[in-house]
Amino acid sequence: MLFVHIPKTAGTSFRKAAEKYYGTGRTKYDYGEQSPVTSPTILEHNYRNQDRAMLAKPLASCSLLAGHFPLARYAPFFRAFDICAFVREPAQQIRSHYEHHCRALGYKKSFLDFINENRNKNAQFKNLNGCPLPAIGFIGLTERYEESIELFNYQYDAKLVANTENKNPNKSGAVYQLSDEESALINELNTEDFRVYNYAIELFERKLHAMQEGTAYLCGQIETNLPKRIRNSQIRGWLMVPDSEQPQQGILRINGCQVAEVVASDYRSWAKERNTVRSGFIGFTYHTEGKLEDGDLIELYNPNGTELIDSHRFICQ
Hints:
The chain is 34% helix and 20% strand. It is an alpha/beta fold. It folds into two domains: 2-213, 3-Layer(aba) Sandwich (Rossmann fold), CATH 3.40.50; 219-313, Immunoglobulin-like (Sandwich). The strands form three sheets. It has a five-stranded parallel sheet with strand order 2-3-1-4-5, sandwiched between helices. Strand 11 and strand 12 (308-313) form a beta hairpin. Helix 8 packs across helix 10 (191-213). The longest helix has 23 residues, at 191-213. The protein is globular, with a radius of gyration of 21 Å.
């Protein structure tokens, strides 16, 4: 299991619950070169020798790797299904991170200064970039921590206990109160974090519904980064059930009208690199009968057309 610990997202609580369940002897850490928690093997190969290929065997024998690092650093060593993280409402995450810096690290500048620092802009997006969000095995929500643990346990047949750690002892209420100026600046500088957070909520609700109904969780996306020469004549995407080797099916609709039933069996190089099911053969391509027009709504549904998997508003460029 690879745990991308984004600061101030209930990550400490989750990490301690996970290491208690999996065992500290089978857990490795990367909290930076200067951290006393970082495992010796990680220090040697990631920081000193800078040869992460040598980590393949040590990581294969551990049950959990956790730390403050971007997903892409260690993703090649894990199945996409076994990558997990928590996200938090961006304004609350930034404020909480600021409070921690002041309380534990002696940060003296103002909150507005903290917001403006590049390292604090879109931090959640930066940590999770490198794999499509729906392909990441598990993304919990800080605000719904107990539900997240329940969902994690269901998905991985685990028995983590939902304790909470590393809370701000000086926090007076359930949420931090921000000024209009602070909120406006956070919104302006963290558009990617808000996008990630809102998308994560959608995915969480769908996965929770699948758990409650006892059905397989079908995830996928409509690809939006196609080459210009084919952008208005093809629809490409991917579909998978994260723990199934069967090719998945879906329905495409354009402006509310069904245009195709697709089977996701095409190769996608990113999926192979991120160790998805089916060795990356989870893609589909649909050749449209006419050219897509600016503003066309493309929707991807499950095979019986009852659940929206993804949607995209086509924009001519």
